[in-house]
Amino acid sequence: MHAWICSNDGGPEALRWTEQATPEPGPGQARVAIRAASLNFPDLLITQGKYQHKPPYPFVPGAEFAGVVEAVGDGVTRLKVGDRVIALAGTGGFATHALVDEARLLPLPAGMPFEHGAAFAFTYGTSHHALIDRGALQAGETVLVLGAGGGVGTAAVQIAKAAGARVIAGAAGADKVAFCREIGADETIDYASEDLRERLKALTGGRGPDVVYDPVGGDLAEAAFRSIAWRGRYLVVGFAAGGIPTLPLNLPLLKGASLVGVFWGEFVRREPAASARGLAQLAGWYAEGRVRPLIDSQLPLAELGEAFRRLAARQVRGKLVMVQPG
């Protein structure tokens, strides 16, 4: 097998494509022949030693992927050789093969191609947990999605629409704003050229959004929170802008608003039954055509460096997927 090995916190440039012995699965594990792996912003952070989870070196990055079960270890009961699966492994995806605990493997829904499977659970799971579980989003409410042109952002737009909400998509640049309209956003804000607070006032009649979905952080956070509606819910999803904002705590008081943390990976670990219910609803929405992973482009696994470059430069609309011929 071949794998991209991370041996230090030097970022994507320090990754090395190496040949290794193909491992045999241990008890409770399956070996997956990887067909597609998606690139997420945490994959960039983890190679830089900046992510919440810091695996010991050396490791193979790549949080989510899809492929075919090639071998199973003792005690594996839900899977058999030949099964098509989605892996929520946290690491291991940027390789030709990976060992994955059975509990972290899900059946690939019927009719879903590998590239969609690799781009589905992480971003859609995160956004579903944020909006439906943590944000208690109701039909008829207004949602502001920041970073709406990216991976979790596009998922959030689709999920909010599936839940019956009105969606205001915020993104930087005319191209991304137009893309958000294409995927179903009711209104858009180009916060690279428009004042976020003034535009939100105009779009909501001064009331503000009921829910703010924020995977960006940075300078946008305080402006968005100051605009939130009474009893609004501000969902802290991530910090793609790089800076972790500090908010005056009088803002939640004045708006009767909630500041809500979203950590999907820990949710999956601590509440597996609730996580499974959310993913089942998403699979149903996928079958109905209400949500669909938006693939910016597919690149060969050997071109992972170029994929990281595009991600870091904010040149991705939706998801980048690395593919491996079967």
UniProtKB/TrEMBL annotation:
This is NADPH:quinone oxidoreductase family protein. GO terms for molecular function: oxidoreductase activity; zinc ion binding. Coiled coil: none annotated. Residues 10-322 form the Enoyl reductase (ER) domain. It comes from the Bacteria. InterPro entries: ADH-like_C (IPR013149), ADH-like_N (IPR013154), ER (IPR020843), GroES-like_sf (IPR011032), NAD(P)-bd_dom_sf (IPR036291), Quin_OxRdtase/zeta-crystal_CS (IPR002364), Zn-ADH-like_protein (IPR051397). SMART domains: PKS_ER. It comes from Ideonella aquatica.
